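S1.2 Input.
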Amino acid sequence: MAPKAEKKTNVQSPRAQAPRAQSAKSRSGGKEQAAKENLRLEEFLPFQLAVVANRASQMIAHVIEDQYNLQVPDWRILVTLDEYAPLSPNEIAGYTSMDNPRVSRAQRRLTDLRLVRCESDPHDGRRKILTLTPLGKSVCRKMSPEARSREAWLLEGLSAEERASLADILRKLKSWTENLELADSEE
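S1.3 Output.
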């Protein structure tokens, strides 16, 4: 099952801890300061992360589209189910950070391709539960080595120390952004 998000009662949400943004003009009173604070996209962390993530996804997308006629959301769902099934579509959205409509479209496609089985939850008939079919498991096993080789190529440019640092930093950023998502959903 998906890990449950813990509510922290004695800690402020990250949103509450983050300072409110002010315009450069209101802080400095002048245009010179505003010009110095212009956003440089190539130095903006969310942009840098998005570029790297998109390039990495495109590397994998070429393989899964050409060899398996699947799209990246399909692949993400298959791999998530392979590791954590059975899951509801909402749980898959939580694991993959995909929005619910995208999960729903991919789920229908994977069900039509007979890679995923969708059944009613025996404890709650309104809830759907997804699992991999034997064919879905087979496809996951065939795709994994190619995905791992693409990942290895991506990491070749980093030393062992840099890889360990990157893994630590990504883990921290993922944890931090999960907290931000919780703060956003509680408003």
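S1.4 Remarks. The chain has nine helices and two strands.
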